[in-house]
Design goal:
This protein has a single domain, classed as Nucleoside Triphosphate Pyrophosphohydrolase (Alpha-Beta Complex), CATH 3.90.79. Helices cover 19% and strands 28% of the residues. It is built from four helices and eleven strands. The radius of gyration is 19 Å and the shape is globular.
Length: 209
């Protein structure tokens, strides 16, 4: 079963604030040396991105349909793809499993439960969320972000309208339930291009055997 067409969203830049120093992301710039035993490299400059909530949780909500595992995917608007200046030009709307930032005072599991309600509409106690492998680093070349993976079995009958986080990027998101095998096929054919989603789906496949 192919994925449905993702919602069409066009992004328009109203004002370029690139020169402002405060924002969602902070660029930290360092002069560094690499020390290998008694050897020190020449000095080099390195930029690192930082933010108040640095790490993220990634969740796979799944259930069974006619004896086969199905997973929930959600359309997500990603402005950096719309602003990409060169080929390839992927769609700015991606199919993803739900994910979200972990607040500084939250545990990864508590954040996962909160984000599951916000993005899919499933209210589950955090103890029901099971780890899905160890944490990983998505882009260590420029940000120290860590991804924590979880999975949870849900009952579709208990799904409510997602609360959302109030961001325009989450308005009118499309939520679909698709067989896990079809979701993996979508990773192979390019219908799913989000790396954390593919990692999570493959881990779930391995876990469930």
């Amino acid at each position: 079963m192919p994925l449905p067409e993702a919602p069409k969203v066009e992004l328009e830049v109203v004002l370029d604030r690139s020169e402002e120093r405060e924002g969602f992301l902070t660029v930290r710039r360092f002069d560094m040396v690499a020390v290998r035993g008694s050897r020190r490299s020449s000095t080099f400059r390195y930029d690192v991105l930082d933010r108040r909530a640095l790490d993220a949780c990634v969740m796979v909500a799944h259930h069974e349909v006619n004896g086969a595992v199905s997973v929930y995917l959600r359309s997500a608007v990603r402005p950096p793809l719309a602003l990409r200046p060169r080929e390839p030009h992927p769609s700015a709307v991606l199919w993803e499993v739900p994910a979200g930032l972990i607040e500084p005072d939250e545990s990864p599991r508590a954040a996962a439960a909160r984000e599951l309600a916000e993005e899919l509409g499933f209210a589950v106690v955090e103890e029901r969320l099971e780890p899905l492998g160890l944490w990983s680093v998505p882009a260590p070349g420029f940000v120290g972000e860590v991804h924590h993976y979880f999975h949870v079995r849900v009952d579709p009958k208990t799904q409510n309208a997602p609360a959302g986080d109030g961001s325009p990027l989450e308005d009118d998101a499309l939520i679909v339930s698709v067989p896990l095998a079809d979701a993996l096929a979508a990773c192979r054919d390019g219908s799913i291009r989000d790396a954390k989603t593919e990692i999570a789906l493959r881990r779930l496949t391995e876990l469930l055997g």
